[in-house]
Amino acid sequence: MGAAIMLTERLGEFRKKYESRFEIGFFVLGFVFDAWMVSHPDELIVILQQAFYLLLIAALIHHEILFGLEKWKPGGFTQKFWTYREWALHFLLGTLLNVYSIFYIKSASLLSSLIFLFIMIGLILANELPIVKKSKHVSLKVGLYAICLFSFLSIVFPIIFGFIGIIPFSFSVVGTLSILYVHLRLLRKSVQEARVLFHAIFTPVISVVAIFGLFYFLGWIPPVPLSVKEQGVYHLIEKREGRFLLSTEKSSGLFSAFGKTVFHAEPGDKIYFYSQIYSPARISDQIMVHWYKENAAKNWESRDKVPVTIKGGREEGFRVFTFKTNYEPGDWKVEVETSTGVEISRFYFQVVAAQTDPARSFEVIER
Fold first, then answer.
1. Which of 289, 272, 264 is nearest to 350 (CA)?
2. Which of 137, 149, 294, 312 could be a cystine partner for 331, CB 3.0 to 4.6 Å?
3. H-helix segments, 162-305
4. What ranges make up the beta strands (E) of the chain?
5. Which residues of the chain have pLDDT under 70?
6. What are the pLDDT digits (tens) for 100-118?
7. Phi/psi at 265 (5° precision)
8. What is the largest CA-CA distance in the chain?
């Protein structure tokens, strides 16, 4: 018995000594686990799980506000569970923030959405801080809940409408405000202190919606649920019996000093850009393939903009390609954009005049 007590005490001391390292380790493992488990945003089981988590968070926040104002007391089974409410809320919010950050990262062209992604990652880290975990300011949790709710609706409405853009985004805004307004009305039945509810719910919700609205019009919010799974430049692309045959020079795997793919071009060559774009099965939308050339002043000049219609549902992504015949040596990039100009991905490459001797050799990749 004494040995068991000593072991328990040592384990307790060990946990206290390395508590911060354990929390970081579990956070990293949790994020990796979510990234591995989460597949596509349009899967029914994924949507239902998120909706269930959001419902639990709403219920916990609702009773947390009433409990703090002494308008409600837990009883029976609820009393036993209530001790662990902070852990439950922390877990639910952390899981959803992880999931939505993963969706955003998959859909983001990193440079165009860098600020937004930093904010999302910052929120995940903030949710891990002891000051947030133990905070009595319910407005912080309401703000995180509003972010999760808005992210959920901004994925669901494009799937419902079958396209992305201002209309699904507007419905996401209205849906978020409507749900939280209903929540506010339910609280008003028990709480007469309007000022308390204003600071607890109205202020963080309006702040979140305003920030998301600003980021949307700046083009910083990744176009979830679209994402580019594969892209590249090739010397020839042919479609045969539902297969795409991509011809690339065997030496084209070389990279320039700046990490750009090198495309060796002879007179008469075409530059083919190929991309696999994932979108849910219900979505049929138009995207733009935008070609840019860097000029002498190191600025990007628009050279061509090709509209392409995509249809969702293919696991590996909808396959599209465009080609360019008028070009010159130098640095190029291709951006894949939504019809509203939001960047989905970008691809940099360098065009170099090829040596005609020795003759080039090619290999064919099947997609």
1. 264
2. 294
3. 166-188, 194-197, 203-218
4. 227-234, 236-240, 243-249, 261-265, 271-278, 284-294, 300-311, 318-324, 330-338, 343-353, 362-366
5. 1-39, 109-114, 124-137, 194, 251-260, 356-358
6. 888 887 787 666 666 777 7
7. -115, 130
8. 86
- The CA distance from 93 to 99, in Å, is 10
Q: Which two tokens stand for residue 366?
A: 């099947």
pLDDT tens digits, one per residue of 303-354: 999 999 998 878 788 999 999 999 999 999 999 999 888 888 899 999 998 7
The residue written with tokens 């920030």 in the block is 211
- Report the half-sphere exposure of 138 (CA within 13 A, side-chain side): 21
Which token pair is 227? 């994402």
| pTM, to two decimals | 0.79
Q: Is 243 helix (H, G, I), strand (E, B) or coil?
A: strand
Length of the chain measured in residues: 367
Q: SS3 helix, strand, coil % of the chain, rounded to 5? A: 50, 25, 25
Please name the residue that has the structure tokens 């007469």.
192
List 348's β-bridge partners, or say none. Answer: 333
Q: How far apart are CA 38 and CA 23, in angstroms?
A: 22
Task: Write the CA distances from 306 to 56, 294, 322, integer angstroms.
Answer: 45, 19, 7
Own/partner pairs for 101-106, CB < 8 Å, 24+ apart? Answer: 102/34, 102/35, 102/38, 103/38, 103/41, 103/151, 103/155, 103/222, 103/224, 103/225, 104/151, 104/221, 104/222, 104/224, 105/222, 106/224, 106/227
Give the count of alpha carbons within 13 A of 272, CB side only: 17
Contacts of 193 (CB under 8 A, 6+ apart): 69
- 281 Cβ contact partners less than 8 Å away, ≥ 6 residues apart: 42, 312, 313
Contacts of 216 (CB under 8 A, 6+ apart): 169
Mutual angle of helices 19-37 and 85-107, in 10-degree steps: 50
